[in-house]
Amino acid sequence: MTGIEALLEMLASAGVRYIFGNPGSTELALNDALAGDARFQYILGLQEVPVVAMADGYAMASGSVGVANVHIACGLGNAMGMMYNAHCAGTPLLLTAGQQDRRLRIEEPVLMSDLVQVARPWTKWSYEVQRAQDVPVAVRRAVQTALTPPTGPVFLALPLDVQTESSDRFDLVPPHIPDRRVRPPREALQQAAAILAGAQHPAILAGSRVAESGGSAELAALAERMGAAVYDESVTSHGRLPMATDHPCYAGSLPLWSPEIHQLLAGRDVLFAVGINLLRQYLYHEPERPLPADARLVQLDDHAWEIGKNYAVDVGLMGDPKMGLAELDSLLARVMTGEQVAAANRRRARLAEQRADERARLEADLCRQRDRRPMTAATFMAAVGRVLPPHGAVVQEATTTHQLLLERLGAIKDPGGYFAHRGWALGWGIGCALGVQLAWSERPVIGLLGDGAAVFGIQGLWTAARYQIPVAFVVANNAQYKILKTCGDVLKLPHFAGRQYLGMDLVQPEIDFVGLAQSFGMEADRIGDPDALSERLRAWRDNPRPLLLDVPIDREPR
Fold first, then answer.
1. Are residues 325 and 376 in the same domain?
2. Which of 255, 275, 361, 439 is positioned for an S-S bond with 210, CB 3.0–4.6 A?
């Protein structure tokens, strides 16, 4: 058996079905081996950005390791932006790249580079395999490392001579992932329950790791018992949703800027943070630390680094979010007094009323905007939300367009079916949506893309057409990098105040997304009416196929 055949044996034993790649000379042994191995489907991408994003989306949706293979040096360089996204998201992703033949290394051959050092900052483990017989051990360790909390990406460099070298001394024992459902210590749980039970104005700050642990139902039950509003992460690190957005206790996302967070949480006496990066802020604002200084903080996470990282905790709970939430709910059921239960019920009723009032105001505002053309960003999102099926999946890379409308409308019934940025290396959305669709072939997947973000990973459209992956990509086209204009206004930059924007408008010429998609072999159309957009997505839902819809939206500010 050769080194590369041993690699495939280990990947097969780990349940890997897809290998996403863009090959080069140092990866040819892999492509040759895959040509005769029916256990895998090789998904070709035309550039490393969509390739790694596909593996990222597949891993997040499937909960298993996603595998991508890229070219030496320059290919790895192209891949690193998407590896940064996977690093921020904690995605269990295995990235491999070919390396030059070791017999040439002293000569500093073409494309030679220290790949391990390139990948190391954004991986849990980065290693170059030195012997063919070490390949199975390296793959087993990589898969186990990627999938053990805190999950995250890993990297293996594979010298070409190691790939082709034969050996009869291979340890092909499959990877083994230990049970990750670790319960926090009992004493700490009891301390936390006492604080939560005594809260008069509690709030829950919940992040992506709740959904990733499968703990959304447990979070909802605890929120109901406490009568606590649940806020998820702000739009810059939104990620996965911790609970269904139509739940009465779901109160939306934390604001983007520190003053608004401070105002929102003022008066809270207890904050319970679970599975969240507390906090990942974007631009500096006063107050520097927006959480209320006198609020008691309880934090639960399977990522020890995040507990107490930025804010001192009263109780830190190290363990699986799903298990910890269930334990806390059970403890609260026993320790809450009749008066505390009645107060929690009153808080829960107020939250339901507030949510209903907010929905009514939002619907009225959407009605007022409905006839504006080009349509507003809110009208665009509402048109998508109207046809989003309960079991559908949404991959969101429309930075300034989405305005959290799907969440505010309660359109996302399954929190596990929502995927948004946590790293913000652009170009991720197209590839991620394709990976999610391959993992969830029975579910409709919509990719919501900003026009600026879409062109960073546009080559992924070819992959959608080549393998007939039936994702609907909807491009919110405002012909600009609007997020940068917003940030410039926040920073109070002088020329921004006069609407003098250098290098932020995608005009003269404008990008022809319909022509681009058609050149890659995809069906595409430009739609300017919200009802027409909803109807086109309904038709696609009944007849899934690769589709791109280019939707012009309001271009202010200009």
1. no
2. 275
